[in-house]
Fold:
Amino acid sequence: MHFRSLVIVFGASLIAGGAFAQTNSLADGTKLVPVSPQLSPEDRGDIYMARKMYREAIDAFRQGPPGNPIILNKIGIAYHQLLQLDSARKSYQQALRVKPDYAEAMNNIGTIYYARKNYRRAITWYSRALKLAPEDPKSAPIYMNLGTAYFGRKQYENTTKAYEHALALDPDVFERHGNFGVMLEERTVEERAKYHLYLARIYAKDGRNELALQYLRKSLEEGLKDKKKLPDVPEFAKLRDTPEFKELMATEQRVL
Structure:
């Protein structure tokens, strides 16, 4: 089973008023606050990104100063959300030509290769980005992406190390969901049950039992096999005698 979720992080919230062209509501009827023409092209583009109006965002960003690496990177993200991966990669590469040490653009190129299931090259790009600031808390999503790429290659020991490093830098990295910004988190996995079991084990090892149980439940609902072996998982040693864990083991989960 394949599961797709691409999250954009490190953006700042932005609300604006004023005159706006054409669209004033979303498909679900949600009313939109008009976008002011007095805002900078980048700010207008950010608002369009938050509204998932990616083509409008690209048009707005392109009205900004040419050769700005941040704007080039954001244009890449907009193309990425439209699944125009070749155009996205070109924009990320343009950003890197202007700013060769732009870790966010390197990370985003990694997500291009991940989307194409070229996990080895994704790992190369994530690792390249991490060399620039390996212990910066802002690098936590890159470690998460790195772990997910290792998961794709079934290198589970490396997956665990990368995920644990991500949590050490940002304890809420797996729970944090951004709306728009400059760096992509890749949350696409094909083996959801095994993936969520890994998160459950990592949270249990970290003593965060509520999250461990939450992801363990997800794993079971997604069809995790060998349920009877779960009490023997070392990371669940402190959980196995809790009422919540016993209830999970005793209940037959409905596979979603």
The longest strand covers residues 6-9. The first helix runs from residue 41 to 50.
